[in-house]
Specification:
Layout lengths: L1 H15 L5 H12 L4 E5 L8 H4 L4 E6 L2 H11 L4 E4 L12 E7 L7 H13 L1 E12 L10 E4 L2 E5 L2 E4 L3 H8 L4 E8 L3 E8 L4
Parallel strand pairs: 1-2, 1-4, 2-3, 4-5
Antiparallel strand pairs: 5-10, 6-7, 7-8, 9-10
Helix pairs in contact: 1-4
């Protein structure tokens, strides 16, 4: 059922265009400034946020649950775009270490257990001094508190989609021990936080 919904969502998304998100463009600049050479994108979708990195010579590996999305990514961005088919909750898919990880508008769709696992899995796959950047929906969104209450700050909004809405406190709670160093507010049609973490060997 989840994959069916995802396939339909992806097909609608494709009609919305191929312009990268603001946070993808910002993260691309940030990664270039910090000499990031290879990145992992969990929930890569049909690739609209991947090409901006590839255009700068950054090697991109993706993870995507929707076969439809993977086919579209290959169609539009080439068969050489490496994408693992599967859920981000089943990470890791390889033993590689990545200089950077970019996760856009995905983690807030997961429950508490899976959010914690995703953050830990991403952190584990960072190389030393690597960076991970997450974008998440914030409680400033008009949809916050709407729909069916599931748990604290988590609601079923539409078509069975459940969202967790972040504030700065919950960002610190979930990302604080994973090298969190910056939280940026930005608008991506919805109010979002862009969360930056760095892996430093202790």
């Amino acid at each position: 059922m989840a994959e069916f919904w995802e396939d339909n969502f992806i097909e609608k998304q494709e009609m919305w265009g191929f312009e990268p998100s603001k946070s993808a463009l910002s993260t691309k600049d940030f990664f270039i400034e910090n000499s990031v050479k290879n990145i992992l994108i969990p929930g890569i979708g049909y690739g609209r946020n991947a090409q901006v990195f590839r255009d700068e010579g950054i090697t991109v590996t993706g993870i995507e649950i929707s076969k439809t999305a993977i086919e579209l990514a290959k169609k539009h961005y080439g068969a050489d775009l490496n994408i693992y088919h599967g859920s981000v909750t089943d990470m890791p898919f390889d033993s590689n270490k990545y200089d950077g990880i970019f996760c856009y508008a995905l983690i807030h769709l997961l429950d508490s257990k899976d959010r914690k696992k995703l953050i830990q899995d991403c952190y584990n796959q960072l190389s030393e001094n690597g960076y991970m950047v997450f974008t998440v929906i914030s409680k400033e969104a008009q949809t916050y508190g709407k729909g069916k209450f599931m748990s604290k700050d988590r609601y079923e909004i539409f078509d069975g989609v459940q969202m967790f809405f972040y504030d700065r406190e919950s960002v610190h709670e979930e990302f604080g021990k994973f090298g969190l160093f910056e939280i940026i507010e930005l608008d991506e049609s919805f109010p979002f936080f862009m969360i930056k973490c760095k892996k430093i060997k202790l």
